[in-house]
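just leaving the lab so this will be short. what follows is a protein written twice so to speak, once as letters and once as structure tokens for the fold. can you read through it and tell me how you think this chain folds. anything you notice is useful, everything is just below:
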Amino acid sequence: MESDGKLRLLRLLEILQTESDEQHPISIAEITEIMKQRWGLDAYRITVQKDIEALRSAGYEIETIRTTQNRYYLTSRPFELPELKLLLDAVESSKFITQKKSRILASKLLTLTSRHNAAGLKRNISIADRIKPKNEHIYYFIDAINEAINTKRKIAFRYFAYTPAKKKALKNDGIYYILSPYTLTWNGDCYYVVGWSDKHGKVATFRVDRIFETPRNLPDKAVPRPKDYSIADFAEKAFQLFDADRTEVTLLCAAAAMNSVMDHFGDHAKTTPVDDKTFRLVAEVSLSPTFFAWVFQFGGKVQILEPAEAIEKYQALLEAGKAYGR
């Protein structure tokens, strides 16, 4: 029957996708056996050969290894193995995606290659060893925010921070923040929504996993993006998305700090060699705790030379830390 022929063609494609790869080509005899055992479909050598040619005509790249019994494997896949490994690593290491969702996403990604390759990739996944959030509702948060971005509407949500007792405490006295969301962006293993905050009267950022409950989509039209708005520029100005005004600073850095300088400021960083052991860096940063923490991690191998305001703020933080430890 014609319907059997169409079904056989689909099953053939499924077999090639799941059972074959360059290291595991499959013969027509093996294909017909799988069809019979799994789905009760009768298939013959000539019909399977014709179906393979039909798939090739449709654009599928199927390689033939010519031997006494020809063997076949599918070469065209949505992702190459290194690309798939990269995606799996991102899902595995993300601190934003829950352990349960990470496993679900990883399983779906593994269906994009043969079962042989999937088995090898699966052995290297270590999701259970990662620090993961427990809030499965975050995906509803993203859906609500995306809807607001697409429809150019405001959202309302409550926001929280953790207390020393690891309890959630609502910020802003529990009053809803009103935001015109512009972008969802990933930074430093966290997911942020960036938009115009009515409370702050400017573009601000909020961590999605710190939103207390699913945001409410409001009928109010969103505040239009400022003409000079750019998420790349905003992230750079905010120095890892911690919001503050920009200040030009001059730093004296040990050579060992160059890798971190490149990571944070890019290859356009304004650096000048002082000698073979040090260099000078001039950069615009936010004088936020994040910036000072970045300086502090080098244990004196990065020094703030100017301006005086940055030096004073850094020294004040160090003194406050000493006082706190007494």
In short: Residues 246-325 form a domain with the Alpha-Beta Plaits fold (CATH 3.30.70). The first helix runs from residue 2 to 19. The first strand starts at residue 26 and ends at 27. The mean pLDDT is 86.
